[in-house]
Input
Amino acid sequence: DAGVTQSPTHLIKTRGQQVTLRCSPKSGHDTVSWYQQALGQGPQFIFQYYEEEERQRGNFPDRFSGHQFPNYSSELNVNALLLGDSALYLCASSLVTSGGTYEQYFGPGTRLTVT
Amino acid sequence: RKEVEQDPGPFNVPEGATVAFNCTYSNSASQSFFWYRQDCRKEPKLLMSVYSSGNEDGRFTAQLNRASQYISLLIRDSKLSDSATYLCVVIVKTSYDKVIFGPGTSLSVIP
Output
């Protein structure tokens, strides 16, 4: 069983460009969350998708948008890239088990560098 | 004030030492608590959940004090392989589960 997968692993873009990052959740997980982790900081929540809709959103501008597909995979899009968008972007898939336990697993991340 | 705060670190300890990490949270609606471990340039991985009664997993012991809104992680007999960043994670129960990460505390275990 593959865990959470993300692509690409690394990406270099220039300011003003747009980027799309992709994530496939762990088998059986229906919820996908995206996080931004700047160097030396903890992951910051961007948004969460469930049943193809954005269910929660963190404190990120509208330049950050996403999508979830019927197979639960997800994309994160960032428009008009800024230097400050350089970070590790983590995707996490989750579910609440029948026993009420919250289970979340992270993908390996996409390291985005904006020059 | 940040929702989840941790010891700023870094912690540099010799092999075999005991080290404790502290974490505080501000939202009294927080319901679930975890410690994650993150190796350099890797994704966070679940280390252990934290239960009100406290729980132990080998050399690792986690404690929760709901009254003080405080979580701790104790590592005994530190190994070189314990070197990593330790992230405190709190889940706040709202309409949906809101997952909040602390900034992390870096640990270096030195030979």
